[in-house]
Amino acid sequence: MELDPANPYSLRLPRPNYLPHNVDADEPVVKKFIKPLYRPSDMENAAYLNKIKHFAHEYGITKPKGSKVSFHYNAEMEKYHFGEHHPMKPWRLTLTKSLVSAYGMNFAMDNYTSRAATYEELTSFHTDDYIDHLATVAPQPQPLDVENNNPDLRFNLGGSDCPLFEGLYNYCSMSAGASFDAARKICSNQSDIAIAWGGGLHHAKKAEASGFCYINDIVIAILQLLRIHARVLYIDIDVHHGDGVEEAFFSTDRVMTVSFHKYDPQYFFPGTGALEDNGPKSEHNPGAHHAINVPLNDGITDEQYSKLFESVISKVIEKFRPGAIALQCGADSLAGDRLGRFNLLVEGHASCVEFCKKLNIPLVIFGGGGYTPRNVARAWAYETAVAIGQHKNIPTQIPIHTVWRDRFKNESLLPTIHQILGEPRQNRNTQKRLTEIVQHVTEQLRFVNAAPSVQMSVIPPDLGPIRDEVEQRMKEETEERDELGRKLREEGMGDRMELS
Ligand SMILES: [Zn+2]
C-alpha cells in the first residue's frame, strides 16, 4: 500500500487491528459475572475503609504539599463490555481502582465522581450527525464483519474493532465526561495534576470511530485547555500512534502533538506516524512542524525509552513552552500486553509521568490502550502514586486487603521482565536509530517559532469561538499591563526595574 503524501491519513487499515479472536480470552470475568455482582454490606465497606485508613496512616499517604492532584472517575463505566472476546476490557478500570484505593491513594487526592459529557461537549469536536447516530444506533449482538468481509459500516461503527454494544453512548459520554472534568479543574487552577484513567481514546476521529475509540475525549479536553492556555502540549506513550489527536490539531500551532509508538505501516495499526510526518507540508500552514512522531520497533527497553522520552520532551518544552500538558498513558506499551510489542516495565512507563510532573506545568493524565488488565492496573496505580509523590514510599508488595488481589498473578506491583514474559522480546531498536530520531526531532523544532505569541491567525474553524475567547483574554491582559504601566508612570514610579 502506498502512502499518499498529501494525506497521511489515507492509510487506515480497514480490518480489525488486533489479533484473531481465538487468542487467549485473558479475563473471563465478564462471562463469569453475568449474574449481578455480589454487593458488600455497609459493615464490610466500613471494615475495608478502616483498613485503608490504617494503611494510609502507616505509610504517610496524605495530600502532597504544594500541589493539588485530582482523580476523576465514574464507576458506572466498569459495567459495560465490548463483547467477550474484544481486547478492550473496562474491567481494567475496576482493577486500577482496586489498587489505587488499597494503597490509600484516594486520601492524597481530590476525588470526583465525574458526570457524563453533554451533547454540546461531545460536539465541541465531533460532528452532530456522528453523535446523533452514536446516540440512537441499535446495539448489535454480533459485529457486522464477522461473517461479512466487506460490511457497510456507517462511521466505521459495528465492526469487530468498534462494535455496537449495549449502552455504548453512555459509556463514551462517561469516558469523555471524566476527561472534560479533569481539564476543567486544570483550567480553574483547582488542580495541578488531574487524572482521568477512563479516557485517552486517541484514535477517534471527528466523524468516525477507530481502533476501539468512539469519542476522542482527549481532543475535547484539550479544547477546554485552549480556552485558558495559549499552547498545549500533547504527549502520547500508547504503543499505537496517536493519530486522532494529531489529525484534530493538524493545522494549528497552538497544540503540538508528540507520539511515541510502534511503527509499521503495513502490519501495525494505524499505520501512520512516521518520523518524517511532522504536520502539514505547507510552511504557510501554522500547524507545520507541530506534529512530532517517534516511531519505534519491537522490544524497546525502559532505559532506551525513558532516555529517548526525556531528550525529545525536554527539547520540545524548551522550544514550544506549553501552558499545559495532556499526557496519554496508554498501557499497551508495557511488556506482556496482549497487543503491544515492547519490553517496558511499569517503572519505565511511569518515568514519563515522573518527568512530566517535574516540569511543574499543569498536567492532565489520561488512560488509553492496555489489554492485559492486571498490567494496566499496576501501571496506572503506580503512576497515580507518582502524581501524588508517593511512588518511592509505598510497598511494592500488593496490600493484603486489595480487592481482586488474586487477579494480579504476581504479588508485586513492579514485577520483573522475567516474571512477566519469561524471555524478553528481541529488541529491534538500535542506538544508531534512536540517535537519528533525536536528531530529526531537533531539526524539526528549529522550524518552530520559539514560544509563538498567540496570534492564532489560522486555526481550524471549529476552534473559532475558543480563539475569540483567548484573543479577548490576551487583549485584556495586554490592556491590564498597559493600564498598570500607565498608573506606575503617573505615580512616577517607573517600571519594575526601578522599583527594585
Ligand atoms: Zn493502543
Automatic annotation (TrEMBL):
Q: Which GO terms describe its cellular component?
A: Rpd3L-Expanded complex; Set3 complex
Instruction: Name a single GO biological process.
Output: epigenetic regulation of gene expression
GO terms of molecular function: histone deacetylase activity, hydrolytic mechanism; metal ion binding
List the SUPFAM superfamilies. Answer: Arginase/deacetylase
Cleavable signal peptide? none
Where's the active site on this chain? H203 (proton acceptor)
Major location, coarse class?
nucleus
Q: Where is the composition biased (Basic and acidic residues)?
A: 465-500
Q: Where does substrate bind?
A: D161, G211, Y371
| Residues covered by the Histone deacetylase domain | 86-385
Q: Which sequence ranges are marked TM in the entry?
A: none
EC assignment: 3.5.1.98
Which cellular compartments is it found in?
Answer: Nucleus
Q: Where is this region: Disordered?
A: 459-500
List of residues binding a divalent metal cation: D238, H240, D332
Reaction(s) catalysed (UniProt annotation)? N(6)-acetyl-L-lysyl-[histone] + H2O = L-lysyl-[histone] + acetate
Q: Which InterPro entries match?
A: HDAC_I/II, HDACs, His_deacetylse_dom, His_deacetylse_dom_sf, Ureohydrolase_dom_sf
- What keywords tag this UniProt record? Chromatin regulator, Hydrolase, Metal-binding, Nucleus, Transcription, Transcription regulation
The organism's place on the tree of life at top rank = Eukaryota
Which chain positions lie within coiled-coil regions? Answer: none
**Homology family:** Belongs to the histone deacetylase family. HD Type 1 subfamily.
PANTHER family attached here? HISTONE DEACETYLASE 3 (PTHR10625:SF36), HISTONE DEACETYLASE HDAC1-RELATED (PTHR10625)
What is this protein's record name? Answer: Histone deacetylase
Where does this protein come from, organism-wise? Anthostomella pinea
